[in-house]
From TrEMBL:
Residues 243-382 form the Acyl-CoA dehydrogenase C-terminal domain. It comes from the Bacteria. This is Dibenzothiophene monooxygenase. The keyword Oxidoreductase applies. InterPro entries: Acyl-CoA_DH_C (IPR013107), Acyl-CoA_Oxase/DH_mid-dom (IPR006091), Acyl-CoA_Oxase/DH_mid-dom_sf (IPR046373), AcylCo_DH-like_C (IPR036250), AcylCoA_DH/ox_N (IPR013786), AcylCoA_DH/ox_N_sf (IPR037069), AcylCoA_DH/oxidase_NM_dom_sf (IPR009100). Keywords: Flavoprotein, FMN, Monooxygenase, Nucleotide-binding, Oxidoreductase. Belongs to the DszC flavin monooxygenase family.
Amino acid sequence: MTSLLNDTDRTTHSTGADYETLAARFRPLFERIAAGAAERDRTRTLPRDAIDALKAAGFGALRVPVSHGGFGASIPQLFRLIVELAAADSNLPQALRSHFAFVEDRLNAASDAVQKTWFDRFVSGQIVGGAWTEVGNAIGDVRTRVSKQGDGWVIDGAKYYSTGGLFADWLDVYARRADDDGDVIAVVNRHQPGVQLDDDWDGFGQVGTASGTTRFQHASVDAQNVIDFARRFRYQTAFYQLFHVATLAGIAQAVKRDAAELVRARTRIYSHGNASRSGDDAQIQQVVGEIAAWAYAAEAIALRAAEPLQRAYDAHRGGDEQAEYAANLDAEIESAQSQLVVSDLALRASTHLFDALGASATSTAKALDRHWRNARTVSSHNPLVYKARIVGDWAINGAEPPYVWKIGDGQQNPVSGARA
């Protein structure tokens, strides 16, 4: 993929690094994370140590430009690493999803002192969690409010699905101004009075994402951290959705890894099988081969779908509005298409895994069911039927996809507003 920026811009804009050098920094850490993933799932233990290790290694600064102390990774390189991290533990990419989205927003913001402050925080290891979704609200409405107080602001309200919040230093909160009803992002220091986070996520999968409830009671917000939502980076929805796609691709990679390792070590066979060793049985080899092919396809699709996002970033930094518009459109369509296919591949692989093994594979000690539970949970975040319709409408009628959407109670009177 050719960048629209000149070589002289490559240290000040995040257009890419040497991937193998970058990955080599994190792969030993990914191996250690993978070693404890099954046990964390069995005991429903939050991966605090893993998050702390990632922060210390600078993982949260992957997209920060080299000139500001980061790694300058491109968006496809970021998602390639997310696939590798998800193969180790799929909870971690989802827990860091809001962080990287906020980093991306700061990358697209004006190059000023505020941007530099955030880059310095990212490089120091600080991370951002998300708090957007509410329950009990009318579709499009936002009950969380920010109000002027002196030279700053205060925030009040409650959010559900606050993914990664318990690991974070800051919270990216979707809210509404009390004075003019304008939609904003309020970036809230999580370590202050008036911010309460509960680990009450009760889903059967992705149990270590810290996706619980956050409550705000007159918590303070610096004036520079109340950001007009209309200024949010334009490819945000595609970016958020590609985190799900990359996570699913990583789950498929984990299934491939576990299938190969367990078959290789398996000594028990069936009398009506095809070999004296499970690893030499042609039908078992076929099962593992199919899983490997699905995992390969899932990753390839995820990385292909990340390319238009990088073009959108490059075009924005280069001031090419026409190229930016085209790239944003491609990003939405390709992210939707990739979700439709990769969700199916990951779920298929995580079920087919058991066709290569015996009943002992269902032992809770192995926790192999977590792959399906996690894939099912990730792929349920946004209804795939709507994705298919949007892609179909584009293919047939050239109808542009929605760039943001809303969720809420459809029985109440809807009001204007962005996705919560």
